[in-house]
Amino acid sequence: MNRSRERTLLASVALATTALVTLGATGCSSDSATNDPAGPVKLTIWVSSADQQAHKNLYEAWQKESGNELEVVSISSAGYEDALMTRWATGSRPDLMEWHPERAFLAGLNPEENLQQLDDMSFIERSGDFYENEGNWNDHIYAVVLSGPSLYGMYYNKNVFAEAGLEEPATYDQLMDSCLALQDKLPDVTPIFMAGGTLWPLTVLPFNLWGGHFEDGEDIAHNRAGFGDEGGPFLTALEKFKELQEAGCYNKDINTATEEQGFDAVYNGTAAIVFQTSGEYPVLEAAAGGDGEALSAAVGWGSVGETESWANFQPVPRGTYMAPKSGDAAKEAAARDFIEFATGDYYQTYIDELKVAPTMEGVEAPTDISPLLQEINDFYATAPKEPLFNANIAGFAEFVQLMPQLAAGQITPEELAAKEQASVEQASRAAGVEGW
Amino acid sequence: MTESRLSARTGAGEGRLPSSGHGKAWTKARREHKLYMIPALVVVAALFLVPLALNFYFAFANWTSYSSTIKPNGFDNFVYLISQGYLQKGTLVTILFAVIAMIGQNLFAITFALMLRDTNRINGFFRSLFFVPVLISPLAAGYIWKALWASQGPINEFIGVFIPGFDYEWLGVGATALPLVALTDAWKWAGLTTLVYIAGLNAIPKEMIEAATVDGASPIQRFRHVVIPLLGPAITFNIAITLVSALSAYDVIVSMTAGGPGNDTQSLFYTMRSQFGQGFFGTGSALSLVITVLVILITIPLVSYLRRREVEL
Question: Residues 6 or more apart from A404 whose CB is under 8 A from it?
Fold first, then answer.
């Protein structure tokens, strides 16, 4: 081989190697699109596939108003948290994303390192004390919550209860009595429909029973109490979940039934109660063919506490936005501009379209809503209310994986409590939560 | 094994440069060959060695989404996974799933291959038909079969024609859910395996079958003593591929049972993703390492055994 051929060969090898390395590096880069500092900015936003038209209209409107581009990456709402966190683990970061604003979930993003602080933005002072608990990590704000909270309660079929001559239950004892009475009077009706095939709906009944126990959750969050404490609210609720199961109150396909089947059943009257969240109302309305009036005639709303009915609320991730740091000043500013836009003059349009309660002052609540939605809003306004029991417990998400095992009879309430304790301990220690 | 057979297998001796009188040229050529290897080595390092090494490191580190600090933590991740029962249950489910899927897929495939061995229009149609599930997304395949096995689904309705009131939760009971999910995975990929078996069957010299027939061998004897031994390489390939893919099955499980009932179909891969989803990246990496080790421990001895059997046969 002569010298010139050798040089050509070396150059080819170097070029191929460089190309491969560059290709690899590109593959490892952030999700954020590249951006010309002088021109319009292109942002990436991760959203749930369950986003409604009102959310999509917001994205369109901001693009039109700002001249910037928003690349919307839709992630399946079934397992949204898992899918998003898996992407997060790879180091991939969007410029904006929908996520839960409670500390329990916020901790999982390591906000001080990864998220833009929104402390100086104008929406905070128009939101009263809302951000004392939500979107707040170590007294800094990292999230904007556009939609009113979702309540953890129950939808019940009014006709079934009327036919059986029963009132809807508000306490655990009344729930058990209703179940036994329904089994006696209407044996073809499932007293309580549980959708274990969708996993998380199994958690809604325990969340109902934890109403009024937010402070107990705080104790667990800071290691002043444990999940397995005898007589504690966590274990007691799980024991009651099993009592109802042993009394035959649930559907026999509890392990495979889905959320949609539960809504169909309660609307059609083949089930009396389904424990669910108000945030899933659109799915319930779909079961009624989108007819809010017909739905409201058949279905009512309530919640079941240990001794009284509570409005246990949780902000929903849909319409809750966070702005991860990208290191690109123009893009970070554009992400904040999106938040300013969404909480500014456009906010009334968003609320009108989505038909939910606003979280900020100076905006009219929607009036043309179904009677059932109005009933839910009235319940939130009048019932004693608290954030969910687990709002500040880092690592609580394991509970969603454990409840199906409890329902399938694979673990006892005590074993569930021990596993939940281990998960929370691991997360809380890593997050440096006080008390761990 | 003779030297000539070894040479034929390894290609040794082909393209060998003369070793005497051309020492300088030989050294240059060797240097040139090494340079050509660099891009391939970079690819292997970037796509295989570095991820494997990182996975190994993270499996023994306290990596979570809750903190930006990553430090080695010994066996803590494995202790956590064992205390939660994830490692034991995940390993059992994964092995059972893989064995059922591997056996099912190869039985389906070899049956189809024997039926569709000859190349003609009708067989061509059926080969294409059986290949259709390969083209369907695993999630879609899972949802289709989930609907079929539902308690109010068509399979129960059909059985109900013969047994009035028949109602069984096929996917709600662990004893039936795991085999059904594994067999769905087998059904999904059987078309691909069938093609490999058809190619293997068509490579068997017809004279050997005819000779066995003349010797009075029955169809079962011909299949057992002539076809199966000569199908050895195809069997080795298919068993290895089906086993490796089944050991990392995920999509079909998610869509059919979401890991249920309870955790009866939660494979290691399913649990790994769940751990990542909760921000526990270290424990997720530990499960990933377990899957890798499991694949190595199961497939390498198995493939070695099957290769030896090919030679013996």
Answer: A196, A199, A202, A255, B259, B260, B261, B262, B263
The answer to whether residues A385 and A392 touch, using CB atoms and an 8 Å cutoff, is: no
- Model-level pTM? 0.85
A218-232 pLDDT, tens digit per residue, is 999 999 999 999 999
Provide the 3-class DSSP secondary structure of residue A271. Answer: strand
Average pLDDT over residues B181-210: 94
Nearest to A50 by CA among A332, A259, A268, A266: A259
* Lowest-confidence pick of A48-57, A415-424, B31-40: B31-40
User: Do B71 and B58 contact (CB within 8 A), yes or no?
Assistant: no
The dihedral sign for the CA sequence A302, A305, A307, A311: negative
- Which residues of chain A have a CB within 8 Å of the CB of B258? 197-199
**Dist. CA A67–CA A40, nearest whole Å:** 6
The token pair at A272 is: 């009396």
pLDDT surpassing 60 at residue A9: no
Instruction: Report CA B57 to chain centroid distance, whole Å.
Output: 26
Interface of B with A in 8-47 (CB under 8 A): 28-29, 32, 35-36, 38-39, 42-43, 46-47
pLDDT at A425: 96
HSE at residue A262, side-chain half, CA atoms within 13 A, is 34
* B residues 172-231 lying closer than 8 A (beta carbon) to A: 172-174
Identity of the residue in A10, A83, A197 whose CB atom sits nearest the CB atom of B258: A197
Mean pLDDT for A145-158 is 95
Instruction: Check residue B301 and give left, alpha or beta (phi > 0: left; psi -120 to 50: alpha).
Output: alpha
